[in-house]
Amino acid sequence: MHLPKYENKPFKPPRRLSQSSVHSNSSTTKTTVKRCVGIAPLEAKAVKKLKYGPQCLQDQRKIYTVVFRKPSLKKHKTWDGDGYAISKSLHRFAFYDSCGKFIANSVYSEEQEQLFDHIFKAGSLELQLDYEITDLEERREAEIVLCKTDSDLKRQDVNETICERNTKSSQGITAEKALISNTKSKQKPVFNSTLKKLKDSDASSVEDPKLKQKRKYSPLFDVSKIENPVVMNKDRDAEIDVIVDPLVSKHLRPHQREGVKFMYDCLLGLARPTELSSTTAMTDVTSKSLVLEPDSDIQGCLLADEMGLGKTLMTIALIWTLLKQTPKASQVPCSQQGVPLQGLCHKVLIVCPVTLIGNWKREFNKWLNLSRIGILTLSANNTAERDKYDVRNFLRIQRTYQVLIIGYEKLLSVSEELRLGKDSLDLIVCDEGHRLKNGASKILNILKSLDVTRKVLLSGTPIQNDLNEFYTIIDFINPGILGNYSQFKKRFISPISRARDPANKFNEVVVQKGEERSNEMIQITQRFILRRTSSILTKYLPPRTDLILCCRPTEIQISAFRDILQGAQLDLTNLNFNSSLALITLLKKVCNSPTLIQNDSFYNSNLQETKLSNKYNHALNSGKLKVLMALVERIRNGTDNEKVVIVSNYTQTLDIIENLMRSADMQICRLDGSTQAKQRDAIVCSFNNNPSIFAFLLSAKSGGVGLNLTGASRLILFDNDWNPSVDLQAMSRIHRDGQKRSCYIYRLVTTGCIDEKILQRQLMKHSLSQKFLCDSTANEGHADDDLFNKEDLKDLFTISCETLSNTHDLICSCQGKGDEDITLNDNNSTIKQLPIKPAVANLKHWQTALEAQRVIEQSENQNNNEKISLMKRCLVGYKHIDPKIANDLMDPIAIEAFQRVPNDISFAFVKPGEPTLEAT
Ligand SMILES: Nc1ncnc2c1ncn2[C@@H]1O[C@H](COP(=O)(O)OP(=O)(O)OP(=O)(O)O)[C@@H](O)[C@H]1O
Fold this sequence. Notes:
alpha/beta; seven-stranded parallel β-sheet; globular; binds adenosine-5'-triphosphate
């Protein structure tokens, strides 16, 4: 199977622009020519009228790009310049420099296959062919340069006429303005370095002020000819509208149109009225340009949309717009029609996890085509020296690449090169930007040292509930907006933390102050943070059925739980979460498979004398493993050639699953923390494209982020993480754009054991995380103390062998016939989505101890009710099914699996997907 491979173009030095293409007043750059010729093919008739030196337009001879240098004896030779070659016959080549000036002829008489390796000697130069220009647009560009050898005004006029006619004849989304050089004025050659200087200079240095006053400017696109355009907002000084290229905007969904405008407003420091971000306003305003007040505090943003909402596409649309357009036309060189020839940005740095570099490049190709935009990626195979060379060239050379995509890890090795060339960078995009939450991180400090004001952070994972981390990220995006750290600490961290401290839970004043400061912080930051949930996508995706399957523990598991809990001699009166963590982890492992305990460090140092491990060393020794194997066998035997992704937090669990599946002759691939960066992309591609690979084993934490596994339509989440967003990340790998089949997500939990309790915490936390800043997402696999009191901890260590589902027992009293699901009554639906706190408000000052006790008890009850309500909220829409009573798990595969292991699925919550797929 042939997979697309995107190689970087070789670096070339800046091309010297031909005299006619650029001049110091209303100058025209190479881009001008490119735009002009890219609109519609030149008509042969018009072309024939031109009597050009190289005659290149009169026939279909091949045109190549070339690089050249003076002959040198140096070991590591570099190229001095670039140009073109025209092959007049199979063997004869005429070489021209980048201005179209003839250099020399040369002959090639060797094997055709080695043509591109051959070093030609022509004139006093060595030359090498780079690539044949087959792209129409690029060929036209070359032709025009080559045709200008004896440039004269008449010929230029004809060019202009052709360009104008092409523009007029182009329709709808191709209605781009022709960009025509003003050749009638005096021309001086300008190098790209000069253009770079112009970039930051004042308008007056580019244009004569008198001329400027008279001059009219035009946007790059004619908005009247675009169906449903996306027009950017502007400030009062804007001279023209900036309109997203219809080539991209035609693909954008309503939330994406709004997202692109949001990011643009932030980067340009435009103060957005809050109503603009409301969902109802979306469709109405994105095609209009509103005049907004400036907001000097903001030049960066955080796009925190949930995964799968298309943050990559939105960012590509933004980058492409900024590279090509600016509202301040008078500050850049313009065509004769007043169309700016430069955008607001010239060079963009995208930093992302190494696993996502390939994905970014594919997305650029998907939406723009790589022939339009120069994307440089640093290959994982490159040496550090090669990386440095590439980065230096990226920043130095104007023309070849506009975007550099680099892994976070590689930033360190090229930091010096980036710092030296930092003035060339205009925008930094940090994908999975929550990685920058650590203020001491070297990567963050390198990025800060680049002094790039415009920044976009992308993160599908909510920012964690740690105010220090939050400060670090916000201060990176918009430095100083929250004051310096000590001011921030005083104003926000201290009062908010004090209010969260259980010791202050009855101090109304403290709690209220914390709440006020928290709201104040939200108000400041929501100006540049945008978060939408993936529910927006429902109507564009195939239906998704969610099944939570409670898997009955095996006898082996139950006896392992008992032995461990007895051996650990828990002091239930002095429990706290951190001291119990090792035991909790051990119990989680037993839920997956008792085999795992033999490698558990807590077990080995504290419980080994119990010599339990040998007893549990059987293959299918857990309920979840039995259900998993029943499911995957059913999926594999199905007629639809469906594939499955299996996710676990433990690589050792993946080892067990891998062994079981391989012994059942299933072909699998696997991605976990040990998978080399350079292999990751290839593994994902081969899974999605190779029909013989049936399953993908994925470690939830080490790579789930950002992966596209739409080759599979079923996903089994083998264990839960405390942090619901880790699981959500994993689950959205298959149910995302590009998915054509109905999807099924199975979450396996061990009935009545710690697995189910973790699920319950997740359900509560997910409800809480709706309020952005108060997201109670836990840190790196640790549970959040907010949600654990001593009773909760005791509950974690309680095994309920008799129950069909401990979760169901808590929230509902139905029989599990499958016909009842939870609907929130009015009371419940108004539950405040705030972290659970004791009902402090109920406790007035100066109450007797008895009254206080009563209020506290009431508060605790109220909290329990709130917790249950939070859980219910997450399970709205789920059917409650005891498969022994109601044999309808709403999925033929699950039904067949149940028939195979009827004693191992004790209960199920099933949320059937709605058939709402819209043509996209
Ligand atoms: N408007 C659209 N039409 C069709 N496909 C789209 C659209 N927007 C995005 N996609 C596709 O959806 C998939 C997911 O998009 P993308 O990776 O950008 O999401 P994301 O928000 O960055 O998610 P994550 O946080 O998981 O990385 C990609 O394959 C992308 O090409």
